[in-house]
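May I ask for an example protein's residues together with how it folds?

___
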Amino acid sequence: MNFKFKKGLLSVVVGGTLILGSLPITASAKEPTTQVIPQGTGSAVLDQANYFDDVDPSTKVTVDIVMKVQNQAELQRYINSTVTPGSRNYHKYLNVSQFKAKYAPNPSEVNRVTRYLKSFGIQSQVYKDNLVITATGTVAQFNKAFSIELKHAKFHGKSFRATKKSPRAPKDVAQNILAILGLSDYSSFTTNIAKRPVDIKESAEQGPLNLDPSDLIEHYHLQPLYDKGATGKGQTIGIVTLADFNPEDAYSFWKQEGIETKPHRIKVNEVDGGSGYDGYDETTLDVEQSGALAPDANINVYVGPNTDPGFVDAFAQAINENKAQQLSVSWGLSEPTIDYYVDQQMESPEYAEVFNELFMQAAAQGISMFAAAGDAGAYDATRSLGTYQLSVDNPADSPYITAAGGTTLPWEVTTSSGVKVQVNHERAWGWDYLYPFFDSLGLNTPSGWLANYFVGGGGGFSTQFDTPDYQKGVRGVNTYTGVKQWQANADFSSVEKIEPEIVKGKGSGRNLPDLSMNADPYSGYKIYTSDPGNPGSNGEMSAIGGTSIVAPQLSGISALINSDNHNRVGFWNPQIYRFAQEKDSPFDPLNATGSANDNLFYTGTKGTIYNQATGLGIPDVAALAKKFARY
């Protein structure tokens, strides 16, 4: 699903996580040296756009000024120590004030920025972590403060606001600023939700699966936690999203599924004024699936507008409130898309680091974070760029998020056209097992390939982040076995289907995903939706999939484990990689080799612990909870 540009102005963030920065500025007789500040949209868009009019000088604009994390290497060491048994910091997480004192710019540096803004009449509010400053003023005020000219522009059919000149500020103001987001509002994101593109008409009784939460509970062995009394009580699940939804749909879903839940458990936080309903089924499934697994947990939904500052602020509010012990997100972009924007100077190289700083803060605070790994198999860029290089998804590529991959559960059917579809064992999700069926429908064409053939659980190697320490030395990391069945041309703009062959190789960078569960829409889960903004109207159950289901399910599982252990287990990744290397690993690595277990390229390797199709594999949740409780 494409994340469409939303016209209009952002509204200022309000709430208890912000403080007002309003100290007076002192004049200097000497003209200060100025310094360029990176902004979210770079010169390729800004230079090539058609500028046709000045933005009304009285128009109000809200931007994010993101400050640089301090002592980053020390922060990395501290995060590792919170999840290392025997460390004096084990499970000793920072609160937001402690994080700010240790790792954020000091108050004088932040105040220097807010004083500078105030001298031009721009109001500023600072998130509690001192990393994000939300500034609101008129176009005329921002033009003067940053020596820019905001104009109306068009580029590739999009209308947006932009400045062709790079923003500048005095060096003592600019030196601790990582980036400014929102002077231009040119942006695009996608959700990792997947639906069945073709209804399968059956000539046999079996068919695609339509699963309930009880099926997940049985298959991934959650019931022992419920038997011990774990319900998610005392926990809060956080969901960062870019689309509004009907909270009433979630209560209807739980009632129809026979799940007794805590009443009034959903709190919707409209960040920067919230968003519209484009992508509302994504938010709906996040709430319904996570809440079904931890029925007594609260659910805080952070709905930001579909802009760069909106996405940043949704994370910033959730992390700075520090109420959610686990947080999931199912929106993102492929790494090649970000690389393309950076190479073409359509995006700042600092873009990914803006989010990564916040994810490091979350890890230091003991927040377990989960992100969908993508739904285009090993070819994530097909969703956003329409190109065919091996690639992975951001922000799941961050070393400080648990990347949620996808599998397909066993099912079978003989279609009315006589094609037998059969999955005998849980496998990596890749729709190559459906290729004969799609071929019978005449979809074996380039347009049919892009829409139907390149679908599966995201996985592979990041080009933006190095291999994290917790992955180093794990059997299967940075080596791979693949099923090569597509041959791309030199610039990855087209492919041809070839006879499948097994290949082996080495990779580098962060390996994705970290673990996997069922995500295939043809073995998918039910969700309940009604008309957007009109709860109860045309309400219906439907089956849906995507790694965007796995991320919130893991968040619900995290709440269940935390309530069972009466402790915040914190950042999962270093811990689960350690567990996976122990003799009684709580993961089945799904390491069979071949086209019956691939994500359109990567497959398993016998004897390994990790593979890039399903990560560490599928969890036995009860066994995983025991591992977390053991230390």
Summary: The two ends are 42 Å apart (CA to CA). The chain has a mean pLDDT of 88. The CA atoms of residues 234 and 297 lie 6 Å apart. The first strand starts at residue 2 and ends at 3.
